[in-house]
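Minutes, methods subgroup
Present: GH (chair), OT, SY

1. OT presented the first of two proteins processed in the latest run. Sequence and structure tokens recorded below as shown on screen.
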Amino acid sequence: MENFQEKLARFMRGRYGQDQLYYALIALAFVLLFINLFVRSPFLELLLWAVIILTLYRAFSRNISRRSMENQKFLKIWNPVQAQGSLMVRRVRDVKTHRYRRCPHCHKMLRLPRRQGTHSVTCPVCRKEFKLHIPW
């Protein structure tokens, strides 16, 4: 007799499975569940069930191209948000040693050592030189 893992692998063959949108929907379901523990709203419970059903539908779907397009659209929105959040975490972590400034020409974020005063900085992306004042 086959074990459960082999049966599950055979069942999932040809199905879409998990991707970044799947994990985001699972996280959303947990957030809604946590909020619903305190609020006890029938609307939130209905929304929670809709998210869970959508997540399972996407995971077991055989229309791989459609699910992949949905994931790409999600990532087009999610990646800039994630990059901004990661930049904020780095800025907080480096607050004692570095300062973050934008290049006025190409608008690339530069990580500069924290030295007070006026400095001449060369952007590594566009190679333009500009003056910069770091007050503290």
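2. SY then presented the second protein from the same run.
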Amino acid sequence: MELEGKRSHVIDTLFVLCLLFLFIISAVTVILIGAGVYKKNVEAMSENHSHRIACAYISEKIRQSDVKGRVFTEEVFGQNTLVLQDEVDGVLYNTYIYNYDGCLMELYARSDLDEIYPQSGQKILKISSFDIKEIEDAFFKVSVTLDDGTVENFLITRRSEDA
């Protein structure tokens, strides 16, 4: 009789261990699936952020500086550059937005400086290329090639009148 009691006790223990093992396997599987979903979401959000930030940044800069005759394009550093002019205490300053060393850059400098250096600018976003052209009277055609090869083209309107 004692043998039957011990045997059922061993079976009960094995049953509990099997249930525990099954629970652990299920928990690890759920965690791995969740981690995969999270990773895909983070990658998609990062890609979407990169795609949107270039267009939004340039558009917002043009809108902020949209004062009569203060937004224009100019060839600087051997490329078309967006120039946003600002007057502070009677002194003109230019904000240059351009591509340098694989990055969209912004440089704020006095407009009367003879030499400015592209590496002096602030890095905004990693890109492959940036081109901006003034078409017609109030339109800018912007083309940005992102690091992943995606090309973003858009038009933005200057709302103020030319000087």
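Chair's summary of item 2: The chain is about 40% helix and 40% strand.
Next meeting: continue with the remaining queue.
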